[in-house]
Fold this protein.
Amino acid sequence: MNVRSQISMVFHLDKCIGCHTCSIACKNIWTDRKGAEYMWWNNVETKPGTGYPTRWEDQDQYHGGWEVHKGKLRLRSTGKGKIVTNIFHNPFMPTMDDYYEPWTYKYEDLFNAPEGTDQPTARPVSMVTGEHMDVEAGPNWDDDLGGSPVYAANDKNLDGLSEEQRQQLFAVERLVFFYFPRICNHCLNPSCVAACPSGALYKRGEDGIVLLDQKRCRAWRSCVAACPYKKTFFNWSTGKSEKCILCYPRLETGQAPACFHSCVGRIRYLGVVLYDADRLEEVAKLPDDKLIEGQRSLILDPNDPEVIEAARANGVHDSVIESAQRSPVYKFVKVWKIALPPHIEYRTLPMLFYVPPMSPVMANRQDGTVESVSDNFFHDIEQARVPMKFLANLFGAGGEGKVVYALKKQKAVRTYRRALTVGDISMETAEKMLAEADCTKEEADAIYHLTSLCTFDDRFVIPPMHREEAIEMMREPSEHKTAVGFGFIEPPKRGF
Amino acid sequence: MIRTSTPLRGILAACLLGGWSATTRAQDPAADFRQNCMSCHTIGGGRLTGPDLKNVDQRKDRDWLTRFIMDPRAVIDSGDPYAQELLKDARNAVMPTLPGMTRARATALLDLIGAESKLEKSQFAGVQISDRPFTPEDIERGRLMFLGRVPLARGGPSCIACHTTNGVGALGGGTLAPDLTTVFERYEGRKTLSTWLTAPATPTMQAVFRQAPLESDEILALVAYFQSTLQRSPDDVATSRLNFVLLGLGGTIVVLGLFDVIWRGRLKSVRRMLVHRNGSENTHG
């Protein structure tokens, strides 16, 4: 057993209101720079929708992630042979248009326009060329457009739905959408790291954050092609790739990452989990339907004395182990099993988990009146507006079982709380539902508390990062202290 | 700081001294002559760049010869009339001062030259080149050797790697070294050119051909070829350069065109295709 620690995350989609505060918080801190205008390390997508960049989930197009070939894991985008033939042009890259051409408005025209009979307007100008442009698309162009024929209809997760189901999804009375905020998943088996020919990408040993060394990056852009979530970006100004750094400077000072901190719906949870690094490859090679269970088995019980001993032997600090024992992520993923990894079939073992969203049920119409209560509550889950197959493609590697389990449990907790506080449902019904959803009253209370009454400290259990221990390996900490500070000490630039 | 123990230092010193003594030790004069003199001199084989050394000690006294071997430039610069004459005969090529030359080594060399001069045929007589008239076969063989179609017997590089001449094709030959079209004329005919080729004396040629000298029949063929190039009208050098540039440009365009065809989908964006497909569906339906 090779126990390591990993900062892991849960996004509770049922709470996301799609306000994009997270994206703006991230933009303001990290990507409001030349060459990074188009980058959204954090973005919020509307589902069904094609996302950012367009149809990033279509790996037949982008060749991201891993595949199992003759019993071995293999990158889909590159390899020893492919890297030679694609050395000057990688055919599996998103174009600028697939992200969007970033633009601003020429606000000075509002003030400097000569007097005339028309209102002056601020025309959009490209932030890349500086020329006037017609805005055709943006990073979230299909925001709130559940039924848009271009974007929603082309969601990759609609694959496997019957034509009738697809048609229904776009009928006005069934229209549905939910939000899907995304950051780098800081995967356990990151394909971006594996694909980099320069060795610029690395997974930080002490906390599993995937980082990109700006000094070693040589602009191959292999990471951009290899990441199936398209969460590494190429900065056209510095000639280096960039990605979400999980705000590690904030984490190191005990603060939650900016997108977590600013989240209005309080959907984001962060905590450390302990995992067994020896079994990574074995798990990443499992068949699709075993992957979720396999990844869960990698995450170890931080209260198990054997695990604690192995973690200590591996240099994991006691304070980190203690933090792992309080981790909200561990509860959501491993104890309650209601948080699921996105597209685990890409086999990168993402460490950002999503609690799948509940969606409005279809109202039952009986004798002309609309009934919202039925005897069989769980029936409503299958009747939900979002087809189960769609959620299963997104969070269940195609299998509906795990998604239905997570939704049933959420529904049971809701019913239980309603029986407790409103009282229009009998406690007997609620208890029956809890039992059917594999949930106890205590667990339901715990889920309720962490979902609805969670404070900052409940949501973000940030372990002490012990940077001094990591720095000690490279240089004298007191010397390091005088050599770091705000801003780039050496700004990244093109070339070697 | 490097610290070595006393015995180790002793061993190091012994090695250094051993190496020093090995370099200063008088070497076999025959090997010395072969290595350092033979590229310009013969003994009884006629002059190359330098004069034939047969019976050289009858032409000048020992002391003068030793002084000249040890520092040829100094003797020439002193205005010595015989040295000036030698310089003129050698077409102003100054004999290089050999590194590590000592009086003992010079004496040994002169002894060797004296002994070899008495033999009927010295081992240092050099390559003998036939005086027979050139045949068309010689010219053709020389041409093929120049072009590298017939390899040189000792493995030397073919001429076209660095040189060009007329009639080698539309693109011309190498441009690193001089055009050899008129070399026959410049080297004043068959005899001097042949002699020069037995031991080429320019720094580049010497470095290359000391290890892989030309054989006498090869020299004959090449000289025959160079004589023939003199008689043909010279090529237009500008045309062959232009051809070269045009071929490069044409090739680039063809390769780029090929890239364009192979990777024709490279600028297609996913989003634009979705929008386009939707637009066309709407107009048709």
User: Anything to note?
Assistant: The radius of gyration of chain B is 30 Å. Chain B touches chain A at residues 259, 263, 265-272, 274-275, 278 (CB under 8 Å). The mean pLDDT of chain B is 80.
